[in-house]
Write the structure tokens for this entry.
Amino acid sequence: VDATVDLLTDVGYHRLTIESIAARAGVGKATVYRWWPTKARLVIESLSHRIEVTPVKTTGELRADVRALVDAAIELFTESPLGAAMPEMASDLDADPEAREQLLSFLGPARAGNLSLLYRAAGRTDLPHDVDADLLLDLICGTVLYRRLLGRRSSSAIADQLTEMIVGRHLPRTSEGVGPTA
Amino acid sequence: VDATVDLLTDVGYHRLTIESIAARAGVGKATVYRWWPTKARLVIESLSHRIEVTPVKTTGELRADVRALVDAAIELFTESPLGAAMPEMASDLDADPEAREQLLSFLGPARAGNLSLLYRAAGRTDLPHDVDADLLLDLICGTVLYRRLLGRRSSSAIADQLTEMIVGRHLPRTSEGVGPTA
């Protein structure tokens, strides 16, 4: 498990092999396969022992809370080995429903906490009472992840724009500090 | 090139090897490497010969145009081998700026056309004159892509909600037809 996270950080999900993990851990390949039939399951379980994915703490103020959600997404997809591995697992997860289930359980408590934060805002009538909080979280994480795929940084100006789009219901404007090519 | 797209469709980016492509094409590995030093560059060039990425055609009506952008993103990330390969290339693109540049050039004309559609809407004052069209496109593609990573379908109800968020500046609501677990 430790060997997996170390190697994942060094070579990335794509280049990670069960052979190299077994070698680093000083065990046989068969031993690894006995416990984790697929690379995706081994990686998700290893990350879940090493990383904690925690929900954003609410301040009780919508704008600050949404901004914290955006910042957490930026951190996940730029700093964390989990955020780096997630997109690369795409087809492995399609082929391995148990691994996807494991990933959803790992992310689950943080996601539930973040949903609760948005529904609490709805309870204060800061958001519509029937807000689709799930879709808002997907939108925040997805925008940050997609920009990373294209090699675009999500600066704090981007974080401001996403926050403003949700809190102020304003569309993002370039005059808020980012040009079209930012 | 044909061998690459065929194999990509069969096994996915992750499991695709230069060996298997060379074997399918009936050439030596060295020959492949001579022309394409990395797998990412070979895949992007092969896809660009096989697939056309076209901008959405404008209807002149904002709601229909934005809905068409969302539908195009859903099609890209659920139907196209390009959309399937993109997330999996994440770390290869980080390590290979030329491959990323090649991907951006491949996507470029479609993206430029879609930006033009949004700026035309801004010209009609249907969107703010200084709308950050780039960020809106990232938001549309990213939301769809992230949902796919989590194994969530982007139904037409989701497409409606994203469209309404941009056009009507309404936050997504669950009562628009999708529950929190959809």
